[in-house]
Amino acid sequence: MPRIGSKRFTESYILAQLLAQQTLRQTGRAPIVLQGLGNTAIVYQALRAGSIDLYPEYVGTIALEILKSPNPMSLEQMRAPLAALGLGVDIPFGFNDGYALAMRASDADRLGIRTLSDLSRHPELRLGLSSEFIGRADGWGGLARRYGLPQKPTGLDHGLAYDAIQKHQVDVIDIYTTDAKIDVLGLRTLVDDQGYFPRYDAVVLYRLDVPARFPAAWAAMRTLAGTIDERAMIAMNARAELDGVPFDVIARDRLAAPDATPGAGDTESYGFWRKLTGPDLGRLAWQHLMLVSVAVGIAVVVAVPAGVFVYSRRRLRAIVLGMTGLLQTVPSLAMLAVLISLTGRIGAVPALAALTLYALLPVMRNTCAGLDEVSPGMRMAATALGMTAAQRMTLVELPLARATIVAGVRTASAIAIGTATIAAFIGAGGFGERIVTGLALNDRQMLLAGALPAAAMALISELLFELLEWRLRRSSGKAGPAHA
């Protein structure tokens, strides 16, 4: 079955689920959905690399961001240049979700601001814009030049922008015109009086071989063309953002009763406990555990022998530990971006590579520290018994350093459990999947539903390592704590 991706905002999650649920309804088989993969650059790269087969996109984004066209393009105009990239575009859903700027309606009335041209006369206003919008070809740079806007925007996650403007932390934010919170929070959408923004009709961007590889699934998904208007999309977004209804439930309800008033029959409560104990808990726990276990296991296999090798070579030891220490300073998302570029993939492979690199330093450092703790007398005694250097290391030094090495593995595991939550940004799963969704919805309960299980896993890990280190200290006759 095809692998469907989505970006990290409410509407993209819902559209991906609509494609998946419609396929399941008509074929009896569920596609794989890799949700919340980040911005256009990451999802598009995943599509080109074959990590996903299709994802919901917008014609304005395809024209300006992907095809680098200075002008809007129709679907027919896009097909030839996309085909040269091995891609196709189809399934226009039936609605336009454009970019716009919005501010509190009360402030707009007080300052007499109705259009984007009016905004240029108020340099004192604080703009909080999403990082993607600031960097897009059709985003802030061109908009500021077109309207002569003097403000200096601050980068802000789209999911947090509505909270920020409600709390008067910013005055103007970028919005999608089908966002559910525009009217609820009393915001005024500023008129694009010079026609800067193109149309952003929602479509599906796919690999050209998808219709041939998955004919039944593709035929099912194509039945969604022209079935969703702006009103319906706003209502579905509202169910997710205001009522906390899961994306798959929204999609199923829409497909089961497309003409029903969305949310009219909602009686179920989607509170914190239900989000915490949701049906995805077991899957996410297993994914998180596997990411951490495999990454730390690889780090141990690499770092312990490397620590033994560089231990007696002081200059090389300083260089190697310095290089692994340098890796710790690289931000997680930057590391993932580099690894995606190097591997040409998203998902578990770059996530495991990143977690392994972060786990190397504590294991290698503690291996060297543990060997440092072995007394010269023990080494001399082993040599006097006729042991070779390899035998002395294997039978004497490493067993004596074992507790300290385990303490390094303990530290590496704690780092990996926390860092693994970032892996969800590239489709590797784990508890970070809930955190990413919570950020997209600005849903604190969903954030906690991801953070608390991760914290519980870290606590269980600490307890297990504490028990293991106690047993090692007891067996080796040490009373003091192991070197961390």
UniProtKB/TrEMBL annotation:
Give the organism, scientific name.
Answer: Bordetella flabilis
InterPro entries found in the cross-reference section: ABC_Gly_betaine_transp_sub-bd, ABC_transp_perm/SBD, MetI-like, MetI-like_sf
Q: Which family does it belong to?
A: In the C-terminal section; belongs to the OsmX family. Belongs to the binding-protein-dependent transport system permease family.
Protein name per the record: Amino acid ABC transporter permease
The record's Pfam families line, in alphabetical order, gives: BPD_transp_1 (PF00528), OpuAC (PF04069)
User: Any keyword Chloroplast?
Assistant: no
Upper taxonomic lineage: Bacteria, Pseudomonadati, Pseudomonadota, Betaproteobacteria, Burkholderiales
| Domain ABC transmembrane type-1, residue spans | 285-465
Does the UniProt entry include the keyword Hydrolase?
A: no
Q: What is its main location?
A: membrane
* BP term (GO), one: glycine betaine transport
Name the PROSITE patterns on file: ABC_TM1
State any single GO MF term.
Answer: transmembrane transporter activity
- Entry-linked CDD domains: TM_PBP2 (cd06261)
Where it sits in the cell: the answer is: Cell membrane
Membrane topology term reads: Multi-pass membrane protein
Parts of the chain that traverse the membrane = 289-311, 318-340, 346-364, 400-426, 446-468
The alphabetical list of record keywords is:
Membrane, Transmembrane, Transmembrane helix, Transport
**GO CC, alphabetical:** ATP-binding cassette (ABC) transporter complex
